[in-house]
Write a structure and sequence with these properties.
The chain is of the alpha+beta class. The protein has helices spanning 41-53, 58-65, 69-82, 84-89, 99-112, 118-130, 138-144, and strands at 2-8, 14-20, 23-28, 31-37. The chain has two domains: 2-89, no CATH class; 99-144, no CATH class. The longest helix has 14 residues, at 69-82.
Protein backbone atom coordinates (compact mmCIF):
# COMPACT_ATOMS: atom_id res chain seq x y z
CA UNK A 1 0.00 0.00 0.00
CA UNK A 2 1.60 3.23 -1.19
CA UNK A 3 0.24 6.66 -0.32
CA UNK A 4 0.94 8.77 -3.39
CA UNK A 5 -0.54 12.03 -2.12
CA UNK A 6 -1.84 13.51 1.08
CA UNK A 7 -3.61 16.84 0.87
CA UNK A 8 -3.98 18.54 4.28
CA UNK A 9 -6.63 21.15 5.00
CA UNK A 10 -5.79 21.43 8.69
CA UNK A 11 -4.26 19.16 11.35
CA UNK A 12 -7.29 16.86 11.59
CA UNK A 13 -8.60 16.92 8.01
CA UNK A 14 -6.72 15.48 5.04
CA UNK A 15 -7.20 13.37 1.91
CA UNK A 16 -5.02 10.39 1.10
CA UNK A 17 -4.75 8.83 -2.36
CA UNK A 18 -3.56 5.23 -2.45
CA UNK A 19 -2.95 3.41 -5.73
CA UNK A 20 -3.32 -0.37 -5.79
CA UNK A 21 -2.71 -1.73 -9.30
CA UNK A 22 -5.56 -0.49 -11.50
CA UNK A 23 -7.45 1.07 -8.59
CA UNK A 24 -7.12 4.29 -6.64
CA UNK A 25 -8.53 4.52 -3.13
CA UNK A 26 -9.37 7.93 -1.73
CA UNK A 27 -9.55 8.45 2.01
CA UNK A 28 -10.90 11.48 3.88
CA UNK A 29 -9.13 11.65 7.24
CA UNK A 30 -9.01 7.86 7.73
CA UNK A 31 -12.28 6.82 6.09
CA UNK A 32 -12.46 5.57 2.49
CA UNK A 33 -14.56 7.93 0.36
CA UNK A 34 -14.13 6.38 -3.07
CA UNK A 35 -12.44 3.53 -4.92
CA UNK A 36 -11.78 4.25 -8.60
CA UNK A 37 -11.12 1.68 -11.32
CA UNK A 38 -8.56 3.49 -13.47
CA UNK A 39 -9.55 1.48 -16.56
CA UNK A 40 -13.16 2.72 -16.36
CA UNK A 41 -13.39 6.09 -18.17
CA UNK A 42 -16.56 7.19 -16.34
CA UNK A 43 -15.07 6.51 -12.92
CA UNK A 44 -11.84 8.22 -13.96
CA UNK A 45 -13.70 11.36 -15.07
CA UNK A 46 -15.67 11.46 -11.82
CA UNK A 47 -12.52 11.01 -9.76
CA UNK A 48 -10.59 13.69 -11.63
CA UNK A 49 -13.45 16.19 -11.19
CA UNK A 50 -13.56 15.25 -7.49
CA UNK A 51 -9.82 15.88 -7.20
CA UNK A 52 -10.09 19.21 -8.99
CA UNK A 53 -12.83 20.31 -6.58
CA UNK A 54 -10.53 19.66 -3.62
CA UNK A 55 -7.82 21.64 -5.40
CA UNK A 56 -5.38 18.91 -6.43
CA UNK A 57 -3.22 20.34 -9.22
CA UNK A 58 -3.94 19.59 -12.87
CA UNK A 59 -0.24 18.73 -13.35
CA UNK A 60 -0.35 16.09 -10.64
CA UNK A 61 -3.58 14.59 -12.04
CA UNK A 62 -2.09 14.51 -15.54
CA UNK A 63 1.07 12.73 -14.40
CA UNK A 64 -0.76 10.30 -12.13
CA UNK A 65 -3.54 9.24 -14.48
CA UNK A 66 -1.86 9.69 -17.86
CA UNK A 67 -4.53 12.13 -19.08
CA UNK A 68 -3.34 15.31 -20.80
CA UNK A 69 -3.65 18.59 -18.91
CA UNK A 70 -5.80 20.04 -21.69
CA UNK A 71 -8.21 17.09 -21.52
CA UNK A 72 -8.53 17.52 -17.75
CA UNK A 73 -9.21 21.25 -18.19
CA UNK A 74 -11.78 20.50 -20.90
CA UNK A 75 -13.52 17.94 -18.68
CA UNK A 76 -13.66 20.43 -15.82
CA UNK A 77 -15.10 23.20 -18.01
CA UNK A 78 -17.75 20.84 -19.45
CA UNK A 79 -18.67 19.65 -15.97
CA UNK A 80 -18.83 23.22 -14.65
CA UNK A 81 -20.94 24.44 -17.60
CA UNK A 82 -23.23 21.46 -18.34
CA UNK A 83 -22.89 19.14 -15.35
CA UNK A 84 -21.39 15.72 -14.69
CA UNK A 85 -23.99 13.86 -16.81
CA UNK A 86 -22.93 15.76 -19.95
CA UNK A 87 -19.29 14.96 -19.23
CA UNK A 88 -20.05 11.26 -18.81
CA UNK A 89 -21.95 11.22 -22.13
CA UNK A 90 -18.84 12.27 -24.05
CA UNK A 91 -17.28 9.55 -26.13
CA UNK A 92 -13.56 8.91 -26.30
CA UNK A 93 -11.63 9.90 -29.42
CA UNK A 94 -11.83 12.46 -32.20
CA UNK A 95 -14.92 13.26 -34.23
CA UNK A 96 -15.17 11.33 -37.48
CA UNK A 97 -15.37 12.88 -40.93
CA UNK A 98 -18.40 11.67 -42.85
CA UNK A 99 -17.88 9.84 -46.14
CA UNK A 100 -19.55 12.77 -47.90
CA UNK A 101 -17.06 15.31 -46.53
CA UNK A 102 -14.15 12.96 -47.26
CA UNK A 103 -15.26 12.63 -50.90
CA UNK A 104 -15.64 16.42 -51.10
CA UNK A 105 -12.09 16.96 -49.77
CA UNK A 106 -10.60 14.51 -52.28
CA UNK A 107 -12.54 16.07 -55.17
CA UNK A 108 -11.44 19.59 -54.18
CA UNK A 109 -7.86 18.41 -53.80
CA UNK A 110 -7.82 16.98 -57.32
CA UNK A 111 -9.54 20.08 -58.70
CA UNK A 112 -7.01 22.50 -57.17
CA UNK A 113 -4.01 20.33 -58.12
CA UNK A 114 -1.47 21.88 -55.74
CA UNK A 115 -2.30 25.49 -56.57
CA UNK A 116 -1.03 28.13 -54.16
CA UNK A 117 -2.69 27.90 -50.71
CA UNK A 118 -4.66 24.81 -51.77
CA UNK A 119 -4.86 23.50 -48.17
CA UNK A 120 -6.27 26.78 -46.90
CA UNK A 121 -8.78 26.93 -49.77
CA UNK A 122 -9.95 23.35 -49.15
CA UNK A 123 -10.35 23.99 -45.40
CA UNK A 124 -12.45 27.09 -46.10
CA UNK A 125 -14.60 25.23 -48.64
CA UNK A 126 -15.14 22.31 -46.27
CA UNK A 127 -16.20 24.71 -43.50
CA UNK A 128 -18.71 26.28 -45.88
CA UNK A 129 -19.83 22.90 -47.19
CA UNK A 130 -20.31 21.35 -43.75
CA UNK A 131 -21.46 24.66 -42.20
CA UNK A 132 -19.39 24.02 -39.09
CA UNK A 133 -15.99 25.38 -38.16
CA UNK A 134 -15.12 22.22 -36.24
CA UNK A 135 -16.21 19.78 -38.93
CA UNK A 136 -12.68 18.96 -39.97
CA UNK A 137 -9.52 19.35 -37.92
CA UNK A 138 -6.05 19.97 -39.24
CA UNK A 139 -4.95 16.39 -38.53
CA UNK A 140 -7.95 14.92 -40.35
CA UNK A 141 -7.37 17.26 -43.29
CA UNK A 142 -3.71 16.29 -43.66
CA UNK A 143 -4.70 12.65 -43.72
CA UNK A 144 -6.45 13.17 -47.08
CA UNK A 145 -4.04 15.62 -48.73
Amino acid sequence: MEIILQKKFNEDTFYSFIRKGDEMEIYYSNEMVMCVNLNNTEELKQAIIFFLKIQVSVNWLSNTFGVSRQTIKNWFMICKKDGMNKLLELKKGPKKITDEIQAYIIAKFKELNFCRNYKKIICEKVKEYASSEKSVGRFRFWKFT
